[in-house]
Design brief:
Elements: H1 5-9, H2 13-18, H3 21-42, H4 82-87, E1 141-143, E2 161-174, E3 182-195, E4 201-203, H5 227-239, H6 244-254, H7 261-274, H8 278-287, E5 291-301, E6 304-312, E7 317-322, H9 324-332, E8 339-342, E9 354-356, H10 358-369, H11 374-397, H12 407-410, H13 412-425, H14 431-442, H15 444-452, H16 461-477, H17 483-501, H18 506-518, H19 531-536
Length: 541
């Protein structure tokens, strides 16, 4: 680079006007060379440089199909949403199945670059059968009817049982504190008839939950994978961020169990469907919360850009994926009575008791303070100074009983003077300076509400930290491919984080949920914070 940051800080309009034509030409040549170098760096992509593909933002290359999911949204500071940036990218080809006939292998032409084939197994490709060949552990499990379906009398254990159908189930058992570890079990389950003294024959069959049109996966006991093994697969996929092939490799190497990638994927979706009714419990808890942290990050579903939103209370963490404004309205409703900590998204402005994250404002002010523009540097330094003074006062007020200190009244002169400063810079020629000044004026009450209630949080770090793990998952997996996949991710993430927050094991709870839902029973309540529930679903130390 020809010009350093020190050089650029000295350049302004007055300096340029003082230069002669020859001096101005020489400076322009240096600026032109630097600008081309910077433009080349901006235009670098994984396709034209050695930049890794994971370094691109999730919205890069996004394609909008039909209506823009978030066309009516934006931040208070003029931030352009990722989906808007994605509109400028080249439109990708629609992923549709190739024209090969069903039952025939795909043609060589369809396998070339630019093919429209869907990812995964193609129609007509050879499949493989079940490879589980394990010895059966222990005696067969007899599923006998307990009462006669005709007369209603209790069936005695002496009544003869005739097996009609059966299946093998592979599951894992967790060890105790004395003998920790995992034990793989392979059990034979038999279903059949029992004759009552009245002459009526009662038959048992594997349990099954009623089919739902929004789910393509069934909930039934007729499944090779048991509840606890399914919970382990969910743990490997959702918590350990392992892909389906890596899960397959892990189970084969460590447990001696070979499962197909399709079976592994269906297990994850089945657990997600089993946990769906739990979302209603969490939504109710969120709406009753006295303090709620909310944040969002972009999420790609195949080629369409949506948002992963998180809502966090002291006992519940709820994730949803979809159109940002629609999901906020669905979860919070029209009126939210508690305090809402969020960023500057316009969708949150309709809620009266709102808090703004000072961390966002502090970072933007630091960016201005380090700017090459003199006006931006001056405003950034003033913002940092005001935030530092008031932040120290908030920390001091927290040492006193709630309700005894109102910083906004005791330091009204600082707040009023800063308002005049924001009005002065709200028409600045520097874009980011103008945007930050307007952001303060737009959300004035939400930003300074903490001064009258110093025991409320100053930042939205809790929600941002909850999103961090799932942002890493998004970077690894590149999002999801189907609406059902997005639904599964949001449901399982909500249950996992909520159980962790309540000091309970999410895997034991999910196994219990799946076992009950497979036989058509209601989903159990979320683990509570009392000691009895902690013993039922203990969190390993």
């Amino acid at each position: 680079m020809n010009l350093s940051d020190h050089d650029l800080r000295q350049l302004d309009e007055n300096y340029l006007r003082r230069l002669s034509h020859i001096q101005l030409l020489e400076l322009s040549i240096k600026l032109l060379v630097d600008h081309k170098v910077l433009r080349d760096r901006v235009n670098q992509t994984p396709e034209n440089s050695s930049i890794p593909s994971g370094s691109q933002p999730p919205w890069a290359g996004g394609v909008k199909k039909g209506e823009d999911p978030n066309a009516d949204e934006g931040d208070a500071d003029g931030f352009v949403p990722p989906e808007e940036a994605g509109k400028a990218n080249k439109k990708q080809e629609d992923d549709v199945g190739d024209e090969d006939k069903v039952g025939q292998p795909p043609s060589p032409e369809s396998q070339t670059k630019g093919s429209k084939r869907k990812p995964g197994k193609q129609h007509g490709a050879p499949g493989c059968g079940r490879k589980v060949d394990l010895p059966v552990n222990g005696p067969a499990v007899l599923h006998r009817a307990s009462h006669c379906a005709g007369c209603g009398l209790e069936l005695s254990l002496e009544a003869e049982f005739t097996a009609r159908t059966g299946m093998y189930v592979v599951d894992v058992e967790m060890g105790s504190r004395d003998m920790p570890g995992l034990k793989l079990t392979h059990t034979k389950h038999l279903y059949g008839d029992v004759e009552c003294v009245c002459g009526h024959i009662t038959q048992t069959k594997p349990g099954r939950c009623e089919d739902e049109p929004t789910w393509s996966v069934a909930l039934t006991e007729w499944h090779l994978v048991g509840p606890m093994l399914a919970a382990l697969i969910v743990c490997l996929a959702m918590r350990m961020r392992m892909s389906r092939p890596r899960i397959q490799e892990f189970l084969n190497d460590w447990l001696g169990l070979w499962l197909g990638k399709g079976t592994i994927d269906k297990c994850i979706h089945e657990v997600g469907r089993a946990a769906e009714p739990i979302e209603e419990q969490m939504v109710e808890d969120v709406r009753r919360a006295e303090l709620l942290h909310a944040d969002e990050t972009s999420w790609k579903e195949k080629a369409v850009l949506f948002w992963l939103c998180v809502f966090s209370t002291t006992t519940v963490t709820l994730f949803v994926i979809g159109k940002r404004r629609a999901q906020i309205d669905r979860v919070l409703g029209k009126i939210f009575p508690g305090w809402l900590m969020s960023d500057g998204l316009k969708a949150y402005r309709k809620f009266l008791k709102r808090l703004r994250c000072w961390g966002h404002l502090d970072r933007k002010a630091k960016g201005l303070a380090e700017s090459l523009d003199a006006v931006a540097r001056e405003f950034g330094k003033q913002v940092l100074e005001v935030l530092k003074i008031l932040m120290d006062e908030v920390y001091e007020a927290r040492k006193k009983p709630p309700g005894t200190v109102d910083i906004r009244q005791t330091h009204s002169s600082i707040v009023d003077a800063f308002m005049e400063t924001c009005r002065q810079y709200s028409d600045s020629s520097h874009e980011k300076t103008r945007a930050l000044a307007k952001e303060f004026l737009y959300d004035w009450e939400a930003i300074w509400a903490v001064l009258s209630n110093p025991h409320l949080p100053l930042t939205n770090n809790e929600a941002e930290q909850l999103l961090r793990h799932w942002v890493i998952c998004r970077r690894i997996s590149y999002g999801t491919r189907t609406p059902q996949g997005s639904r599964v991710v949001a449901l399982l993430a909500s249950v996992i984080e909520t159980c962790r927050k309540r000091n309970a094991s999410p895997w034991l709870f999910l196994a219990d949920v799946l076992a009950k839902r497979r036989i058509g029973e209601k989903v159990p309540l979320l683990p509570a914070m009392d000691a009895a529930k902690r013993e039922a679903f203990p969190l390993p130390s």
